[in-house]
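Could you help me review a protein record that somebody else here produced? What it holds is a sequence and that sequence's fold in token form. I need someone to confirm that the token line plausibly describes how this chain folds. Take the sequence as given and treat only the tokens as open to question. This is what I was given:
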Amino acid sequence: MAHIHDKIDFTVEVFIVHKNKVLLRMHDKHNIWLSVGGHIELDEDPIEAAYREVKEEVGLDIKIAGEALSFGEDDYSYLVTPKYLGRHKVNDNHEHVVFVYFATANTDILTDSTLEHEKGAETKWATLADLQSMNLRPNILHLATEALKELGE
């Protein structure tokens, strides 16, 4: 999706676990293994963005790990706290603030992306042993491992 701001955007990453495997996708531009995720749109909160991105990219229905506070107020809501909150440079002029969530899925059956530029992206349900041999970025290795430890069966 288009950038909301020239200098910084808010994004989500979702590490999805199903039966002791975590889902990773090959990024279409950078050719590296990442989680499912993308930009948070102006009309959505990070949780809504996480659900939307997962559905668009791999067709899964997920359950975000964690609980949101609720005080019964109609005009004020709390969101599930992200597992991690990060910030990284995309290039010299642009950065992302990243909300990282862990989630579970009831199936490992994926559908192709509904986004034309991401159709046919390589995906892998990786075990802990697989992660060690995939030459992952250190942050992706750590987050995928933590998701498996927390949500694996």
User: Anything to note?
Assistant: The beta strands are 8-18, 21-26, 33-34, 36-39, 62-64, 84-91, 94-105, 123-126.
